[in-house]
Each structure stands twice: as C-alpha cells, then as structure tokens.
Amino acid sequence: MPEPKEEGKKIDSLECRFKVKSNQRYASLVEYLNAVDDLPYPKTQMFLQALSAFWEPFALKWKGRDEEQVKAAASFAIKSLELHIALLQNQFGIVRAEKVLKKPEINEVPHKEIAKKQEIESKEEDPTFNDEIDILDKWINN
What we know:
It is built from 5 helices and no strands. The protein folds into 2 domains: 25-99, no CATH class; 102-142. It has helices at residues 27-35, 43-62, 67-92, 110-125, 130-141.
C-alpha cells in the first residue's frame, strides 16, 4: 500500500471528480444519480456511503489508526453491505440459499481473477479505469 501523505496543514474539504464515457460500464449509474429527482438520499451521501462500505477500513488502516478503530469501521462496513444485500434481494426478488461467506485460503484470492478479467474488459472499453484495477492488484499482491 502507498504510504500516507504527511499531515501538515488541515484540509477542510476535499473534492472528487471523475468522468465516465457513455459507453462505459458505470455510465448508467452516473446517469441515474444525475437524473433521478427522488433519490432515497442526496447523491453525495449515496456515493460516500458506497465508498465507505467498501474502502473506509483500508483507508483508516493506511492512515495508521489504531486496530480497534479499524475493526469497528470494518464491522460497520460489513453491516452496511449486509443491509444493502438485503435491500437488493428484496427489491429485485433474489433469493440466496447460502448466507455465510467462506473465508478464502491464504493462497486463494478470488479478487485477483476478477481484477484480471476487469483489466481485460477495461482495456477493451476505456483505459480510464485502469487505476482502479492497478489499486486492487497492488492490494491483492501485497
């Protein structure tokens, strides 16, 4: 993982911008967030909740936060993802028989196969998402 930047002056706010071409995988998501007037939450909150559920524990660990805080964030992320899974199942009529996820063996890294597949797809579609694959690949291989 990359080293955190040194803490110098305090940052009051951050801005995040990205572009998605209309033929990319994520285009419909961006269109939905921009077009729907009655979103369940403000779109910034929806974006940050999703980002937090997937990556906040890693960010806290990277920042050197204590193990208890990282574990609490990971537990909260897992609960958030479980609730979202239930929402998706309910909303789209999906029934899953298996609820318990198997812990991967040390040498078994399913994300690596997914990352390689996405890397191939992203190279075919558009190179702007190669950073996403590179970040995931670095995390898996370290």
